[in-house]
Queue: 2 jobs
Job 1
Amino acid sequence: MTFSVTILGSSSALPTSKRFPSAHVLNVHERFYLIDCGEGTQIQLRKYHLPLNRINNIFLTHSHGDHVLGIFGLISTLNLLGRTNDLHIYGVADFEDLLMQNVKFFTDKPSFKVIYHAVDPFKVEEIYTDKHVVVTTVPLRHRVPAVGYLFREAPKQPNIRKDIISKYNLTIADIVSIKNGHDLVLPNGDIIPNSELTYIHSQPRSYAYCSDTLYSERLVGLVKGVDLLYHEATFLHSELELARKTGHSTALQAATVALKANVGKLILGHFSSRYKDIQLFLNEAKSVFQNSYVINDGDTIQVSPKIVDSQFD
Amino acid sequence: MTFSVTILGSSSALPTSKRFPSAHVLNVHERFYLIDCGEGTQIQLRKYHLPLNRINNIFLTHSHGDHVLGIFGLISTLNLLGRTNDLHIYGVADFEDLLMQNVKFFTDKPSFKVIYHAVDPFKVEEIYTDKHVVVTTVPLRHRVPAVGYLFREAPKQPNIRKDIISKYNLTIADIVSIKNGHDLVLPNGDIIPNSELTYIHSQPRSYAYCSDTLYSERLVGLVKGVDLLYHEATFLHSELELARKTGHSTALQAATVALKANVGKLILGHFSSRYKDIQLFLNEAKSVFQNSYVINDGDTIQVSPKIVDSQFD
């Protein structure tokens, strides 16, 4: 069961010839969630063979052009492709009117509905859930209202122990009942508790997307223990003042969040185009948090299943 | 003296991983004119090492997303780069309001003015002139008001014959006077007519950009004899009905325009993503007009000087 992130854009406000503006695709069990949608996102989706038409939910962090300017073209393209499913967009309230005006202008005879869900950038709220994933907002600290997103794999039903099925000669009805959490009542009246029949194979995985933001202690608490953290690192720490002034973080600060939050892995992006050597970001982050990585467009980061118990598989 | 076109995008409405949406840059004597501005234009400008900040004039053909959606990001980037020169945009009237709204939304503390010049898509008019180029509108026939542009190198001042300078021992004042069209009066009162002192080294070059459009006889007349013609070819002629229905041309029709207009060279683009083999467009066009070429993103097409007389260089 896949849980991975593909990077479509890793530049900050000024794209380069090698780095498009911000956009990530989260793949949870072959369901695709788009996070931010910088200019050229539709081109990157094609380049990296991601299925445009299977994106039903787009999560926007804030209304700066380098995070949203690909959405007008993407919606126009989805329309040309004959999409009929509703498209849900989550983002701060101030973008809705302009988005809808652009959609109206650039989409000839719309074949599907665009539904905008304004999220409160200052609250921690569960804003989306389906059978694969639960999405919670993560307030950020930027020059404009901005919100990150924490994606958690939906809790899984316990598995039934393979050895139990033959031991008690279980019927399909028994199995369904046990999966629903019931105990097993044997013909002789004995009761086998559900916990002795089932096991948790693996824990839900998690991904937090945090861009753009100043260093934030509150954020540390909100992303505690996530498996994969994307935290922007627009600047090196030598430019801390500039980072503060522009509402951004340094690689060292991002790594400090990762360390304090005890995350599994940190990925850094949103690099300012002033830096030619991205290795410097990696070195700086690793000095604080060893499991740090810098991203490039086209990278896919897999989060492995967190096996709890496999002896009954 | 350069006169060349660099292709930034050659796809039709649906970009592919290899072809961005429409945008060309015309270089006339190291002055850069942007024609159309599809999504990702700023990325392509960087990729092909074209100077973003030296573009002062943008010519938009019509208000479909694949021809204009890169302009919001480009303007936002120019602002971040600290541009101060006015930016002039030429296009049909219906795009102005939405453009200005987007510019306002996405451009923080604008450092320069965006000046929109609404052009009449039904008239042939000289809409722009500087000392290097003269731009004339070329009405197109599309589903929405659309206008192409004809760029002609500005007529050159005659050169002074090198042999004349020593023969008559000309002063700087004499040379300026002759360059301004005056005859030369010798000390003895003899008059040497200007035509015997000067020569035309080369003729002005021309480029016509025609996308999107149905086949048009009127267009043939308007691009008569241009050195380089870009004519859209969204479809092969086997899809003529679809081309007609969507307001587009086939490769055969584009080549017919080139033939009838007796142009120097034809370049074809705006290919529908349904075709995997672009060679088919080339074959179809060449069957009508031999000097046909298909374009790819990143191509630069040079137009050589049209030497009239070089014996006095």
Job 2
Amino acid sequence: MASSNIRYGEGVTREIGMDLQNMGARNVCLMTDRNLSVLPPVKTVLESLAQHGVNHKVYDEVRVEPTDASFKEAIAFARKDSFDVYVAVGGGSVIDTCKAANLYASHPEAEFLDFVNAPIGKGKPVTGVLKPLIAVPTTAGTGSETTGVAIFDFEELKAKTGIASRAIKPTLGMVDPLHTLHMPERVAANSGFDVLCHSLESYTALPYNMRKPCPPNPINRPAYQGSNPISDVWSRHALNVVAKYIKRAVRDPEDLEARSSMHLASVFAGIGFGNAGVHLCHGMSYPIAGNVKTYRAKGYNVDHPVVPHGLSVVLTSPAVFNFTAPMCPERHLEAAEILGADVSRVKREDAGPLLADTLRQFLYDLQVENGLSAVGYTKDDVPDLVKGTIPQERVTKLSPREHTEEDLTHLFEASLKLY
Amino acid sequence: MASSNIRYGEGVTREIGMDLQNMGARNVCLMTDRNLSVLPPVKTVLESLAQHGVNHKVYDEVRVEPTDASFKEAIAFARKDSFDVYVAVGGGSVIDTCKAANLYASHPEAEFLDFVNAPIGKGKPVTGVLKPLIAVPTTAGTGSETTGVAIFDFEELKAKTGIASRAIKPTLGMVDPLHTLHMPERVAANSGFDVLCHSLESYTALPYNMRKPCPPNPINRPAYQGSNPISDVWSRHALNVVAKYIKRAVRDPEDLEARSSMHLASVFAGIGFGNAGVHLCHGMSYPIAGNVKTYRAKGYNVDHPVVPHGLSVVLTSPAVFNFTAPMCPERHLEAAEILGADVSRVKREDAGPLLADTLRQFLYDLQVENGLSAVGYTKDDVPDLVKGTIPQERVTKLSPREHTEEDLTHLFEASLKLY
């Protein structure tokens, strides 16, 4: 159970130049995306770098919802120079891309699939030493600043996969609540749903001492190790903060208390799921995002169809937790209660339906699209979505309940409409 | 806000040989104390080392409640060899001694006072690279496996002081609840009180954004940074676990659930106070331990008078929290409620007396000696105790309430008798 270095506070981003100077950085790679490159978070970082005379180059070509191709472009940029520190300013897409760039630039001989999760890639352990990476998250969602995971769309498979190794965990996350004031309403909602599902999935993940296989040698154990007494603390705490603040944070971009609480919740949930893992909502979200046809999410300024990560995750959550509840009804009831349900007279066997209903009401209140059908899928697409979920074993095997392809089919079908 | 690598589970200690093999260790320094050297925790480690062919040397001369002299002996042992990994098997005394040995062996030119906290030592920042240290805690108390702190008695000053740097934080803590079954009843009680005070003090410590001075350069900020949203989660959670399990853990050494819960609570509280810091109970405990006359604690097999650390900390707790409550009454009320008090009709201004009474009852139930007078102090000793507290600024300045020498005098006097 490992955790993360986080510095939190309004305005901490202004200190980054001093940190880089303290580290003796001579050639910094600053990664971000086009939209952010003209917004205050990046400007603040650049001003701090200039003020402390830190030499740097900017890469602002990160793709929102990155792909293998966009990862490779960032890697090529990093490999053709010799950076000694990386700085990622952005959401999960930017931080994940920067992790990959740092990893492959530190392993110049490695081929792209070497470190990608098996069975899609070779899942080789990271042996070299990476450069320090400072992550400055500008969304309150992925928790990528706390984790050793980098996710991308593998385009030829139409599914998301990733790289998971403690070695790519950022050296420091600078969590500055002022940045989240720049999130559009739907970005705040969708990234908040990612936090919601990180909490719920990690809290209900298969317990660490029931996960199989159980490699006798510690070096072979996965980063996602199942729910455990340390991750539980974070997952539950994050869920409480989400329940209290997400609606305010979505509705009022100026509500600094709510937005900064959600920012911290994303860190808390990140530490939780970074240890425990996520399961079915995330496993099923990868083909939902990967098979996108023409859906263009509101509030996202991108040049390609996209189902935002948080939305792709949350749309199956009522069906998923209805399905998993029988394995640990107490935790599902506790989650429903935290999200506002009255559980005083509810039987254990009703934990699933209750949490599902609570989530549906929660999503309805937050004006979430009405299920997978609203983002362009029909019943005919379900076989492809199931097929895209099968290789996501890294996460789906952490589901507390074993499942067949038929179960997955049922879960996708039950998620076509929510209300 | 940094955290720690912890591996938790019954029997995890048996894996240590594999870990050392994975790390390529060629010459391991195993530190422990005489009593432990013949008990199962050390035996288990030695068997695992033998099984995996790990070359090692044993140093079992660690002093319970270490001194500058005993630190120096361990440092000399480490310096005359060239160890590539350190393993500490024991309570806080062993882990702290091993941290110091690793630090000074990695800085062969350093003089002893170089890294000791100012104003007693020079408080120089650690610049070199230390060897990995694996800590295997056998008491549920100090949380030393999670912190960058090493405490010792500075004999000529008759006070405890220490070394504080993130650089000495163990690489990995192996938390094996089976080890805590070997703790005698009073060791379980006193180490549990340390956990209790870590939680209470870190939860009520001065908030991180009110601490002064506030060094503009992050490199100059102290390890103990004041209470903050991350440490709060740990401190409060640890307090809940202590409240639920300490009595069972003390009374029944075979109660694995209670003892292993207290073991985890010590980790949780360690992560909390390792970030936030402790304040008056700890600051005042150092002269209480350092000025010991003839008191010999029950259940401790040592050849010198000793007030065990946890006891020296908890004896002033009723007076201290009565004094600090006006600065953050809500947190003191919350703590009293967690410890079993009915707070439903209590006014904010009564938070201090209520928490003090709750603590007195708690200590009485656990058969704690009746105040400082029961460990050999009279009113005449108070000026020395106050004098010994003054240099403990590293912690006392984290008190939420400013205090004069007169205040300290009053706190010691109020702690002579508890019941």
